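Need a sequence for this fold. Nothing fancy.
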């Protein structure tokens, strides 16, 4: 096949996207091709093509091409330059560029917090909604994305604390701890009020397994901590603090050597607060017995 634009015969086929691309000028000659090696049956759509991705500013509809290593260095450099220009042309208007940069920050934040791809897509969809309603105006993109991450994690029951989100803000945005915490709470309250969201209370059970893995505790201690969680009220204390206290009490009962300072350092809570909550939980257990 010969390219109608430059006349070159260097045409490659991208089976994953169903496209034929000229490697000399980057022109997409054919698209939406059905590759014979892709498995499908009658009455069904061919598989092997990606669906719309809300985490991308153009929903993944933009055309991309790869640079093969079998080409000469001069050709590879030329194609890399063409790919760079092509990627820039995917976001021409200013609102497209700002949306792309915001969604890129959302993706990087999810990587820093080790969040799954489903959470990233939900955050991207929620960001689009907030942008449409004008909630992102005048807000720092990194801080707004961090508030979205905290809200979505609470809605989906993922154990992520304010301290963890603040730590990422300090590392990525260069914000002070107090400034990051105040900004996170302020934007979170705004999202809850304007979007009519109600965050469910966080349960200590969500943090027990995670903290036990960080502390390398045996399985019997984890089971004992879950037993202590049954019927226990947090009393307004943070769920992560209560979970750390229950793990400490479970380790004591099972005879596993574990100090308050080790738990506090690994979990990220104060030693004095951990001591008070663990002692209070032991007193409640004695009253229940």
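Here you go.
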């Amino acid at each position: 096949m010969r390219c109608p634009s430059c006349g070159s015969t260097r045409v490659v086929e991208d089976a994953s996207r169903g496209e034929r691309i000229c490697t000399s000028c980057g022109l997409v000659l054919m698209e939406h091709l059905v590759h014979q090696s892709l498995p499908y049956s009658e009455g069904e759509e061919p598989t092997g093509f990606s669906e719309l991705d809300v985490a991308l500013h153009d929903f993944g509809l933009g055309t991309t091409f790869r640079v093969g290593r079998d080409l000469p260095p001069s050709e590879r450099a030329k194609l890399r330059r063409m790919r760079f220009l092509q990627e820039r042309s995917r976001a021409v208007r200013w609102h497209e560029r700002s949306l792309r940069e915001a969604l890129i920050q959302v993706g990087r934040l999810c990587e820093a917090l080790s969040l799954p791809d489903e959470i990233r897509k939900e955050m991207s969809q929620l960001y689009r909604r907030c942008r449409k309603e004008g909630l992102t105006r005048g807000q720092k993109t990194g801080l707004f994305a961090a508030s979205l991450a905290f809200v979505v994690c609470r809605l989906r029951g993922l154990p992520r604390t304010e301290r963890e989100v603040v730590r990422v803000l300090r590392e990525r945005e260069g914000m002070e701890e107090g400034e990051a915490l105040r900004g996170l709470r302020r934007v979170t309250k705004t999202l809850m009020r304007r979007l009519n969201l109600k965050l469910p209370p966080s349960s200590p059970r969500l943090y027990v397994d995670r903290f036990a893995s960080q502390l390398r505790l045996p399985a019997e201690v984890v089971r004992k901590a879950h037993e202590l969680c049954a019927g226990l009220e947090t009393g307004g204390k943070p769920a992560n603090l209560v979970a750390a206290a229950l793990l400490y009490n479970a380790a004591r009962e099972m005879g596993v050597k574990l100090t308050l300072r080790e738990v506090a350092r690994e979990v990220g809570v104060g030693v004095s607060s951990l001591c008070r909550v663990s002692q209070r939980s032991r007193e409640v257990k004695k009253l229940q017995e």
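For context: Residues 34-50 have pLDDT under 50 and may be disordered.
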